[in-house]
Design a protein that fits this description.
Blueprint (H helix, E strand, L loop, with lengths): L3 E6 L6 H15 L6 E6 L5 H8 L5 E4 L16 H5 L5 E4 L2 H6 L4 H13 L3 E6 L3 H5 L3 H10 L7 H6 L1 E4 L13 H19 L7 E5 L7 H5 L6 E4 L6 H9 L2
Parallel strand pairs: 1-2, 1-8, 2-3, 3-4, 4-5, 5-6, 6-7, 7-8
Bound molecules: phosphoenolpyruvate.
């Protein structure tokens, strides 16, 4: 049985105080949801310490949205995986399409970031997904294959066993357009197949989340698909009621 995960990527939203209130509401709401659903919140760096105080021991886990590619030193403005892990944070989102697009993250950078995450016992939530023009040109399978081969294939089996993947079609992120449940299942199954080529049956246990305008109205259908193991939620994770309702859709 694969873990079911509903993770909320808050992106660059909320003040630290608002974030604490949101985390409190998620903790409260999560108590009424089946324990098989694992909630994760991913606030900005500035909120992590305070949000950890609210979530510790509750079953709601915390993720960072990024980490530095280097361990420490003269990298102004960067936050290391060790700093994040020292707060008790368990996960880190890596390779989100916004970071690939606006901050030039490449597979080379992401290999270094995954190395830092694992070296500090953070579980990476590695994001992959194609742009609209790539989907329209029928290249979506090739795009996700490269994003996996260039990064995930460099992991050893122990590290691979911990990895979470988020498939997020870029054309569905923040646009209100969602992949149909059939499109999601098709590509999630493809992703699992690619992982199986390298890691064999261990790929059957890999959690593959769907992301892209997932909300309380479409989550149940998406999550009903065999290879969709939950969601990485952006906009809808900023309202605790919606975020919890997505978890309840399982
Ligand atoms: C995301 O960016 O991870 C995401 C899924 O955003 P949204 O739900 O807002 O489309």
């Amino acid at each position: 049985m694969r873990q079911k995960i509903v993770a909320g990527n808050w992106k660059m939203n909320t003040t630290p105080m608002e974030g604490v209130e949101l985390a409190k509401a998620v903790v409260a709401g999560s108590r009424n949801v089946d324990k098989s659903v694992n909630f994760i919140v991913a606030p900005p760096f500035t909120h992590l310490s305070e949000v950890m105080k609210v979530t510790r021991g509750t079953g709601v886990a915390v993720s960072a949205q990024n980490c530095a590619a280097e361990a420490k030193g003269a990298y102004t403005g960067e936050v290391s995986a060790a700093m994040i892990a020292s707060l008790g944070v368990e996960y880190v989102i890596l390779g989100h399409s916004e970071r690939r697009e606006y901050y030039g993250e490449t597979s080379e950078t992401l290999n270094k970031k995954l190395e830092q995450a694992y070296a500090n016992n953070l579980i990476p939530i590695y994001c992959i997904g194609e742009k609209l023009e790539e989907r329209e040109a029928g290249k979506h399978f090739d795009v996700v294959r490269s994003q996996i081969e260039e990064v995930v294939f460099n992991l050893d089996t122990d590290r691979f066993a911990k990895l979470v993947i988020a498939y997020e079609p870029v054309w569905a992120i923040g646009t209100g357009k969602t992949a149909t449940a059939e499109q999601a299942q098709e590509i999630h199954a493809y992703i699992r197949g690619v992982l199986r080529e390298k890691f064999g049956d261990a790929a059957n246990d890999t959690v593959i989340l769907y992301g892209g305008s997932c909300n309380p109205s479409n989550a149940a259908e998406l999550f009903s698909k065999e290879d969709v193991d939950g969601g990485l939620i952006g906009g809808a994770s900023l309202k605790a009621d919606d975020f919890i309702a997505i978890g309840e859709s399982y």
